[in-house]
Amino acid sequence: MAGNRSRFEEYLQRANDFVWSEKWPEAIAMFRRALRESPNDANALMAYAWSLFNAGEMDEALQVYQRLARLTPDDPGPYERIGDILERKEENEGAAQMYLRAAEIYRAQKLSKPLYEALEAAVRVNPRLDTAWDELLKHYQEQGNITKAVEAALWLSHLYQAQDPQEAIAICRQIQRFVPNDRRLGLAMTLLQSNRPLPPPHLLTAESAAPEPDDAWLDEEAGEGNGSDPGSPTEIARQRALESLAESLFSEERPQAVGLSQEQVSLLISKAVDAQTRGDLTEAVDAYRRLIRGGVTMPSIHFNLGLLFKEQMHFEQAIEQFQLSLPEAEYVLGSHFALGECYQAQGQFEQALEHFLEVVKIVDLTTVKRNEAGDLIRVYEGLAQNLINTGEPERVQQLSNSLVDFLSQRGWEEEVMKARERLDSLARSGTVLSLAEIISLPGSEDVLRSIAMAQEYQRRKKIYAALEELLNAVGLAPFYLPLHHLLGTLFLENGNIEAALDKFRTIANTYEIRQQTSLALTTYQQILSLSPLDINIHTRVIEMLTQRGRIDEALEQRLQLADAYYQLAQPDRAREAYVEALRLAPRGSADRRWQVRILHRMADLDLQRLSWPAAIKDYEQITKIAPDDERAHLGLLRLYPRVGKTSLGIGALDKLIRRYLETQRTQKAIAVLEELVQEDPTSIPLRARIAQIYLNTGQRDKALEHLDVLGDLQLEAGQKQAAVKTIEAIIALNPPNFNVYAQLYTELTGREPPMLRRAE
User: Fold this and answer.
1) Which of 185, 400, 427, 672 is the most exposed place for a label (fewest CB within 10 A)?
2) With a threshold of 0.70, does the pTM exceed it?
3) Is there a domain that residue 229 lies in?
4) One domain for residues 612 and 739
C-alpha cells in the first residue's frame, strides 16, 4: 500500500540518519519499524543487520544475515558477515564454510581481490583447507608475494605429506627456487626427505628437523672440522654447485651436449668434481672447459669454473664465468659475492661495492615485509649512488671491507636476522632501514646496544637517561641519521615541537643531499604530520615526487597543499593548487580518476565561495569526462536555476537518466528521481519524469500515485492543457476511482473522457 511504503521510506531515512551518527540502538528500533512495512526489503535488512552487528547483538544479527543469504543467494556479503560472526563465536568450521561460499560467488562474478580475501579468511579459521591453500599459492606466486607463498606452500606440504609425500616435496622445492635461503623451507625439506612428520608452519622450528638420536653421529661427522654453518655466500653456492653436479650423474634427465656422448659427459663431470675436491685446479679447469666446449652449459659448471679461475687469480676469466651463473637463483648470492671479491682484488672498489651491496640487499629483502620491499630497494639504490657520487674511495673501500667481513663470518645469516630486529625497532613508521649501513658503522654492536637502551628509557619516560644513551651513540656514529631522528623523537615526546621540527628538516635535507630520496620523502611526510600547513615542505615534496615520476603521490600531495591553503584562509591559492593538479592529472593512473576527483574538489571550493558560474563549469567538465557521474549532473540541476537557466538543469538531469536507462540501470534512475521528488515534491518536471519512468516499466500503481500529484500541481500552476493530458494518462490506466477522474475531465474540457465507462 502507498501509505505503508511512505512510512517505510520515512522510517528508513530516519534509521539511516542514526546509522551515520553511529547511534545503533536508535537505528535498530527505526529499522524494525521500517521492516514491519516491508519485511523483505534487502537493503533495509542489510542495514538492520549491520546495526545489530555494531551494537554487539550478534545472535540477532546472525539470524538477519542468514535470512538475507536466503533472499539474495548471489550476494556474497551476507555469507562473509555470517562467517565473521561465527568466527567471533569460535565456530570455526561453520565460519570457514561461509567464507568459502562467499569465495564461490566472487569467483563466479570474476572479482579477484575479494575472492582471495575470502579464501584467506577461510584458511585463517580452518587452515586444513587444501584446495583453498592451493588456489592462494597460485595467486601469491602470480602477485610475487613470496612471504605468503612460503606460508601457503608449507601448509600444503603439511596437508599433502600423508597422502602424497612427493607432491609435498615438489611444492616446497618449487618455492625454494625463489627463496633459496628461507630457513623454514629448508627445515621442511629436511623433514620431508627423511620421511619424518612435517608439523604445521607455526610449529616448524629448528628442533623439528633435529636428527634423531641414532643418526646424530652422522651429523657430527659431516660437520667435523667445518662447523655447522657453511660459511660465506660463495662457499654456500660452491657446495650447492658440487651437489648439483653430483646429482646430475644419477638424474634421468642428463645434461645435453654437442659432440659428446652421455658417458663422456658423466666422466668429465666426475673428473671435474673429484679434481676440484682434491684441490687439483688445473685438472678441474680442463674438465670444466671440455664440458663447456661440448655444449654443456649448466650454471653449476660456470660457477665452479669461475671459482677455480679466481683461485688462480685469473680474475677477468672468473668474472666472465660468474656473469653466466648470475641469472640462476641458486647462485645469485654466491656469484655477486665472488664478483665483488674479483673486482676488489683488482682495485676496482666501486664495482666491488656494487656487487657486495647487491648481496646484502638480496639477503635484506628476505627479512622485510613484502610491502616494504620497494622502499628498501630504493634505499640501497640511493646508498650506492651516494657513495659513488661523493667520490670518497676510502669510504667505499671501508664499506666493502665491512660487508666482506660480515658475510664471511660463521653464522652470518643468524646475525642478519638479529640486526633486522634491531633495525625495525629503530625505524619509524613508514621507513625501512638498510642492513648495509648498520654493518658499515664502526662499533655497530655498541651503537645498536645504546639505541636499544635509549628506546627502553624512552618507554619508561626517563628522558634524560635516554638522551645520554643517544648522545653516546651519536658520538660513535655521528653521520648515522636514524640516531638523529631518535633525538628528534625525544624532543617531540618532551613537548619541544619546534626543536623536533628543526631536527627533522635537517635530516630530510641531508637525505636529499645523499640522494636517499625515499628516506627524505618519509621524513618530510613526518614533518607535515606535525605541521600540516607548512607550504614550503608541501611544495618541495611535490617537486621531488614529480621529478621521479611518482605522479599519483605528487597529485595526492597537491590536494593536501590545496587543503593547507584553504585552512590558511587563502581560497584563491587553494584553487590555483587545484588548477596545477588538473594540469598534472593526465599523467596519473587512469584508474584513480584524477581529473574527476580534482574537479569535484574545485566545485566544492567554488560552491563555498558562492561562485556559481565557476562551479557550473567544473561540473560540466566532469560530465564530459565521466557521463555516469551522478553528483555532477545533480549539481548542474541545482546550480543552473541560480543563474537563471532552469531548463539547462532539467536537461542535465535528463542526460543522467537517459544514461542510466541506456545502460539498463532503471532502478538507479528511479532511485535518483524519487530522492529528488522528496527534496522538491512540488516540482512539475520531476513528477512528470518519475511518472513516465514508472509507466515505461509497467509499475502502474506508482505511476498513478505520481500522475495524481502531477495533475494537481499543473492545475494549481494554471497549466490546464497539461493537466488534461495528465488526466487522460490516468484514465488510460483504468484507476480504481475512474469516475472521479472522468468527471474532472468533463469539467475541464466539456467532453466525455476517452473511455465512456470503467472496464469491468
Assistant:
1) 427
2) no
3) no
4) no
